[in-house]
Amino acid sequence: MGTKHRTFSRTFSSKFLSFRYSTILTLFILFTVLFLLLSPLRHIREQFILAEQLRFNGDLRDTKFPWNKLCFGPTFEKLKLAVFSKTWPIGAAPGGMERHAYTLYNALAAKGHEVHVFTVPSDRKPHQDIHDDNLHVYFAANDHGSVNISLAFDNFHQVDANGGFDYVHTESVSLPHWRAKLVPNVAVTWHGIWYEIMHSKLFQELLSNPDGKLPGPMTDLQEAIPRLVDEIRFFRSYNQHICISKSAGEDLINIYQLPPRNVHVILNGVDEAEFVPDPEAGLRFRKKHGIPGNVSVVMGVAGRLVRDKGHPLLFEAFSSIARRHPSVFLLVAGSGPWGRRYSQLGPNVKVLGALEPSELSHFYDALDLFVNPTMRPQGLDLTLIEAMHCGKPVLTPNYPSIVGTVLVDEGFGYTFSPNVNSFVEALESAIRDGPYILQRKGMACKEYALSMFTATKMASAYERFFLCMKNTRYCQYPLPTDC
């Protein structure tokens, strides 16, 4: 009996332990699933920036990652900055570079720095110079409305004579390289380099002539290499180089052969108070523009409706999607020749035209998915990060400038190779996931955008950069005043 009792006890204990472990395991899996569903990627900001932020200690000129990942504290030293910019936004529908310039220099001026911008109005019409507290904008246009660099340089010297500039900054080649040689302290921010543009021309050739059956020489591609060689040669006319994507920074070091300490990555940012999730505003936007209430997924695209922005690609891909998924809707915001073509796709597409800047955030709020079909693998498209700030996932080509800087995790959206078949597959994947998963991905996008792509972080990084270039004491990180 004793043996039988011990056997029963061992059997009971074994079954009880097995049941207990099985129950614990089941509960663990259940709570894990609930955690992932209810709190998707809630610590995503720390995942992407905390490790590097805590690890880095040294000279900022040695960083191998975007300066936006660091947290810079307040400074009491004020700068006098000269800026050469291609255009200054006036009126509706400003371009990406114009919005970047407006956001950055207003933010630096708000920090107490004296900023002088030499440029022309974006609407190519006569305007008075702008003097708004610390921000001064001087318009110097030629007969065609472009920058008259001689006049702009004269204005620059007049302001410089009344107290020298601490540093000079140019947006791309707004200050041409032959003029940059005459300026001792100059930095350039590249919004696109010819090495990336060359890839763009390659993709466009493959899209427009996939089988090589069209006659005639590939003029753009034939001219690309000489242009690239010329650009590599004159880039050394600028002292310091700022790139807006990690891949461009790597190209300037590896292809353009610039010293690593002269190449820095500072990502673009947008006003985080302007682009915020607002579901109610999104519903009002849908109602205003007649979006049916029974649609399954609302996609959207924004920008100039021209060829190199990828609209032939989107037109073909969405034509296929519309036939198979009649409940999927596409909103098209922007103006250009492809607007008329989109109207041919029937009731699944609504062409909105150019939106006022104040409407852009509500446009993003109305979407389930933001689509960027661009054929230009250069720069950092502001529409992507604006949509992410509004809590929307993105679908975009798998260019290094995007995948290495913006879509750094598959939880943020979808990528495709720049051809119709790959594009359709990515769209199908997003449609299969549906609004719930798209919403989860969108919230992850918002968290990452807040950690990297804000006007505040961008302005702080540029501020520290200019201070570092003026006084190497500011090149050390962290300083006692840093976060």
UniProtKB/TrEMBL annotation:
Positions of transmembrane segments: 21-41
Pfam families per record: Glyco_transf_4, Glycos_transf_1
One function term, GO molecular function aspect: glycosyltransferase activity
Keyword annotations: Glycosyltransferase, Membrane, Transferase, Transmembrane, Transmembrane helix
Coiled coil: none
Keyword Transmembrane: yes
All residue ranges annotated as the Glycosyltransferase subfamily 4-like N-terminal domain in the record: 94-273
Glycosyl transferase family domain span: 286-437
InterPro entries according to UniProt: Glyco_trans_1 (IPR001296), Glyco_trans_4-like_N (IPR028098)
Source taxon at top rank: Eukaryota
Family annotation (PANTHER family): GLYCOSYLTRANSFERASE
Protein name, UniProt field: Uncharacterized protein LOC107432529
Organism the protein comes from: Ziziphus jujuba (Chinese jujube)
Organism phylogeny: Eukaryota, Viridiplantae, Streptophyta, Embryophyta, Tracheophyta
